[in-house]
């Protein structure tokens, strides 16, 4: 059973590490993994604006760097605690490592990724 309040707080804490001199928006992502550990990410911007990294993207790197596995529950928050929904690209990145049953925090509460990215293209579609 996911402790969502804790996961949200961890996401806010991760957002404090953001490098966001261009947008000024700190974003943090936190996920419970299938082995119970928590991984985090923050956005990392760039002077070449288009190559900046979203928090969910750096969190996917942390998943791989810290032992791999799968996301089972994900929360994204600003540095001031506002709920943020992942952009389209990040929904796809989360789907790769969480699949349709991974739970995502939303304004309606936690919902499966299959509702956040309906009819998704994913690993199962490849030959
Ligand atoms: N951002 C994320 O980190 N995740 C998202 O899903 C949407 C946007 C970041 C990118 C950029 O650093 C800042 O938010 C403003 O767009």
TrEMBL record:
EC annotation from Swiss-Prot or TrEMBL: 3.5.4.5
Family listed: Belongs to the cytidine and deoxycytidylate deaminase family.
Reaction catalysed by this enzyme: cytidine + H2O + H(+) = uridine + NH4(+); 2'-deoxycytidine + H2O + H(+) = 2'-deoxyuridine + NH4(+)
UniProt keyword terms in alphabetical order: Hydrolase, Metal-binding, Zinc
GO terms under biological process: nucleobase-containing small molecule metabolic process; pyrimidine-containing compound metabolic process
Organism: Actinophytocola algeriensis
Protein name stated in the entry: Cytidine deaminase
Role of this protein: Recycles cytidine and 2-deoxycytidine for uridine and 2-deoxyuridine synthesis, respectively. Catalyzes the hydrolytic deamination of cytidine and 2-deoxycytidine to form, respectively, uridine and 2-deoxyuridine.
Cofactors demanded by this protein: Zn(2+)
InterPro entries in the record: CMP_dCMP_dom, Cyt/Deoxycyt_deaminase, Cytidine_deaminase-like
Start and end residues of each CMP/dCMP-type deaminase domain: 2-124
One term of GO molecular function: cytidine deaminase activity
GO CC terms, sorted: cytosol
């Amino acid at each position: 059973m996911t402790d969502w309040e804790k996961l949200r707080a961890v996401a806010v804490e991760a957002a404090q590490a953001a490098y966001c001199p261009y947008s000024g928006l700190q974003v943090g992502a936190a996920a419970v993994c299938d082995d119970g550990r928590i991984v985090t990410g923050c956005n990392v911007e760039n002077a070449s604006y288009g190559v900046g990294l979203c928090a969910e993207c750096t969190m996917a790197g942390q998943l791989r760097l810290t032992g791999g596995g799968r996301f089972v529950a994900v929360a994204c928050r600003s540095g001031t605690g506002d709920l943020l929904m992942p952009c389209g690209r990040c929904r796809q990145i989360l789907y790769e490592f969480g699949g349709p049953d991974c739970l995502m925090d939303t304004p309606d509460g936690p919902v499966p990724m299959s509702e956040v990215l309906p009819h998704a293209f994913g690993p199962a579609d490849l030959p």
